[in-house]
Each structure stands twice: as structure tokens, then as C-alpha cells.
Design a protein that fits this description.
- This protein is of the alpha/beta class and 238 residues long.
- The chain has two domains: 39 residues; 183 residues, Vaccinia Virus protein VP39 (Rossmann fold, 3-Layer(aba) Sandwich).
- Helices cover 39% and strands 21% of the residues.
- Helix 4 links the parallel strand 1 and strand 2.
- Helix 2 packs antiparallel against helix 5.
- It starts with a helix and ends with a strand.
């Protein structure tokens, strides 16, 4: 009976792949997008939020700071391998882009990309859409002290943490090279939903700061009341 079940599974899987191969590419693409929406969570609105809002915002932040990130990647030899952690990756778009750009040594060192999130439900979406990215379900404060990455990228997570000093310290404990931390800059009160702290240059005073820059971005636009908003990028040395 078990052998028959296995054979049935093999036949069904073969038929599915045969049907998919016969589909027009655009229809196949729509099917894949439907799978993406479904993998984001039981509520379809979560999938739509991921594709329509969170991923575009995450990609925009990465594009904003990519010249600085590229500068530090160029410190590594082209034929070397670099480990990269995206901490608090949202739905994984930024990590996915890095994993595609640096999947070989064409642009520089080959980069192995991990993401770490306290939200386990995002694993399915990230693993389906970005197969070159490895998902770790944990808070960085709780992981094995021996786990290390050459570069750590953390975009718009610091302001959510109850203790920014502890969070930054935990990041640097697991960083061999440099950490790139992006956050809303000197956010006006009342803070955005679930933001617990204003982040300014002083937030990084006790750490080894390589550089700090303040920038405007389409990913963090003017408020409905017309107030300009900015982001801060702090590059820290381990």
C-alpha cells in the first residue's frame, strides 16, 4: 500500500509539472504570485501588504543606502565569500535582492544571505520567494554566541526595540566586520505605531561609528500634515 501511495504521489507530481510547463509564462507568473500571497499568511491582506507596501519600502531603503553597502563589500576580495544577515527583514525583499546580486562573484564577493525574525509566519513567504535566503527564527539576543556574520543589515527595526542600546550591542556581538543600521531620524511625537524611541546620532554614542548620514527617501514620505521625515544610516565597526 505504501508503495502504491508513493507511486501515486510521483504520478501526480509529474502531472502537475507537465501542466505547469504547458502554461503560458504570464499565466504561470500569476499562479506563482497567488502562491506568494497565500504563503504570507492566512489573511490574504497580509500577502497584499507584503507585495504592495512592505517589499517596495524595503527595496527603496536598500537602494537608498546601497552605495555605502557596496563600498564595504568592495573591501572583500572578489573570489571570497561574505556572510550577510538582514535582521528584521520584513518579508525579505532586501535580502532577496542582495542574494540575487551577489549569488556569484560577478559584482564582488559571493554573499551568503541569512535573515532573522521573531515572526515565524514569514518563513514560508521568504523561502518561497527568495530560495537563496536562509531564515532564522529568533531574537538576536537569544542566538548562539558563536554565530557571526561579516556584515549585518538592520533596516527600521531599532525604533521598535524597548532597549536600543541592548539591541545594538547584541548586533555587534555577532558582527565580524560592519553593521548597517537604518531607522527613522528624530521622529516627531506622537511616534508611529509600535515605535518606542526617537533615534538620533546620540543613540550610537557608545559604539564605534564609521559614519552617520541623514537622508530623505520615498520610502519614508512627508506626513499627511506636511511634516518632512528623514532616516538615519549609522555604519558601525565591530
Amino acid at each position: 500500500m505504501k508503495t502504491k501511495d508513493r507511486l501515486s504521489d510521483i504520478v501526480l507530481t509529474t502531472l502537475r509539472f507537465t501542466l505547469m510547463a504547458a502554461m503560458p509564462p504570464k499565466l504561470l507568473g500569476r499562479l506563482f504570485q497567488s502562491l506568494s500571497l497565500a504563503s504570507a499568511g492566512k489573511d490574504p491582506e497580509i500577502g497584499r501588504y507584503a507585495l504592495d507596501c512592505n517589499n517596495p519600502q524595503a527595496l527603496c531603503f536598500l537602494i537608498d543606502v546601497f552605495p555605502q553597502l557596496q563600498h564595504y563589500l568592495q573591501k572583500y576580495q572578489r573570489n571570497s565569500s561574505v556572510s550577510f544577515l538582514d535582521l528584521g527583514p520584513g518579508f525579505g525583499a532586501a535580502a532577496g535582492l542582495i542574494s540575487e546580486m551577489y549569488r556569484s562573484d560577478f559584482l564582488g564577493p559571493k554573499v551568503s544571505v541569512d535573515v532573522m525574525d521573531i515572526v515565524e509566519d514569514r518563513r514560508s513567504f521568504i523561502e518561497l520567494n527568495y530560495p537563496n535566503v536562509s531564515f532564522i527564527h529568533s531574537a538576536i539576543e537569544n542566538i548562539d554566541p558563536d554565530l557571526m556574520w561579516d556584515l549585518v543589515y538592520c533596516s527600521n527595526a531599532l525604533e521598535h526595540h524597548p532597549d536600543p542600546d541592548l539591541f545594538i550591542g547584541s548586533i555587534l556581538k555577532h558582527t565580524r566586520g560592519y553593521a548597517f543600521i537604518i531607522a527613522p531620524y528624530n521622529e516627531a511625537h506622537p511616534l508611529s505605531l509600535d515605535h518606542k524611541h526617537q533615534i538620533t546620532e546620540k543613540t550610537f554614542d557608545r559604539f564605534k561609528v564609521e559614519s552617520i548620514s541623514i537622508f530623505k527617501t520615498a520610502a519614508w514620505p512627508v506626513t499627511a500634515c506636511g511634516v518632512d521625515r528623514y532616516q538615519i544610516l549609522s555604519i558601525l565597526k565591530a
